[in-house]
Amino acid sequence: CHGSVRICCSPSPNIAMTWKSRMPELTVSLGQRSYPIRIADGLLETAAGLPVTGPCLIVTDDNVGPLYAERLKQAIGRSECPLWQMPAGEPEKNLGRFAELLQAMAAQGMSRNATVLALGGGVIGDLAGFAAACYMRGIAFIQIPTSLLAMVDSSVGGKTGINHPLGKNMVGAFYQPHRVICDLDTLQTLPSRELSAGLAEIIKYGPIADTVFLDWIEANLPDLLARAPKALAHAVRRSCEIKAWVVAQDEREAGLRAILNFGHTFGHAIEAGM
Ligand code: GLY
Fold first, then answer.
1. What is the mean pLDDT of residues 146-169?
2. How buried is residue 65: exposed, middle or buried, by Cβ count under 10 Å (0-12/13-18/19+)?
3. Are 247 and 257 a contacting pair, CB within 8 Å?
4. How far is the CA of 251 from the centre of ligand 1 (A)?
5. pTM over 0.70
6. From the CB of 257, is ligand 1 less than 6 Å away?
């Protein structure tokens, strides 16, 4: 085994263990910056894993906010938690929105003990995470991904940032969240195109890390497309396990982590041309 097939041939014992035990909570193991990923239905209803102390700010967009922001406030027991909502879409992940968000955080008087809750897809997670990384040199943030793509990729691993006119994700920081909360119920309201985007990323984990998983995806694709909760739970959990394992080996992409970018170069080029 060598290079890109190394994980496939020699799976981490941790991955094998969690895979078998189907633990509802995974860990991204990064020493003092380790954090849990919780994956289940109804996490926004039950508040499981969501205690938030100190000042907070929910960052979201105008697709997700109307659906889930109030539920999140109830879940954390903080009806007074302010909401910062921006228009949805990749073009919004820009310097102007970043400046607006920092302005809102300062205007709220947020202090070092404040927490940013990133409620949405990858655009929101990247922007809110980068703002959390920069504000007062770094405050806590929690990823609450509501898209399948964000659950299996951008919410895990600490890549935060914004786009620059000269390049995607050109300005950013490696900054890990304090936890990741994947409420699988939110996938039921996801547009079909967004579901497909997430499934493409999930499929990718097969060739890069686990051919058994690839076979499973192939056999269960109809269930995944039909949003069967059990199938989605399994796909998200296994994808997060693989990503967490890779990130734990190479947090800042000195080598191995680049394997997670497989396909992204083409994807970014197509996106730029659209
Ligand atoms: N999206 C690729 C990575 O997190 O490294």
1. 97
2. buried
3. yes
4. 10
5. yes
6. yes
